């Protein structure tokens, strides 16, 4: 296939899709991003980036990579200077440290800030909800619910854990597995003195705990919109425990009260923070979903997956963002080889797909880590205690 004829359709303007687009743009490969959202989503979260930093440097333009600090929840935080190039796991019953997993350059990135910064200069078409994909010997076409379509050489589905591209490729096999845990994930603000105390005592990247009550609880900073006004700082909680009651199963009821009812025996900072959460905080229903990658028919090299669409995992070992960047780098490398005539599109995509599925072993590792957070007595045998946050297989 000639350089002139190669055109990539990226479905999804998340971390994997944006990184892929920048890599293609840097290498002068034609592409477009289509995203089902018509505007910014109200959901926001953080992503831990550790071993993927060198890959981001390859993919992103120099000015964007040099300004990664602007994508952090706290844009003033230099984790290296602060001696915080690590994640922190505590004993939830005592508050004592179980492990500080160190990794040079590790940082927390806020997804909304990152998407806004990385979208600049890219060709992104919003409000494009995928309805079908058709392929021919000459190319592939993405069809959308608004009646429009995009044609090109290859589609890469980077459209998240409920991927429409994955559903098209695999049908019922694309359905996520829901883990048997009650799950709450919500942002909140605190009073000035409370926010200052928490900001001082918590790890700026990841501060999580395992507890004898078979619970996981994590405290994270989401944003500091005004560095001089701690009452504006936004934190968030991730908490999981095994489903035992009908309320847990239905994810219903007064969620904050249910959480507080589980906090007996917890140490600070977790216990105090849950007590301080404003009574009117909104905690939306949520479920802990994963998807183990299964080999798919890429239709002659025309359709593939990346990021959460290819391997959805829990947050318990902090690998999802790194793997999204790794997928983007491998895909861009494959496209460069096709453009340069070193391989055919089919050969390049077959090789890429094998790598994506192999990297999907992390889904199982992260699942084991999720189980371990709820098995206090055996936590020291968990993947994060043995592997830290380095890439699997290294």
Automatic annotation (TrEMBL):
InterPro entries: FAD-bd, FAD/NAD-bd_sf. Residues 7-40, 116-353 form the FAD-binding domain. Its cofactor is FAD. Residues 1-21 form the signal peptide. It comes from the Eukaryota. This is Monooxygenase. Coiled coil: none annotated. Keywords: FAD, Flavoprotein, Monooxygenase, Oxidoreductase, Signal. It comes from Tothia fuscella. GO terms for molecular function: FAD binding; monooxygenase activity.
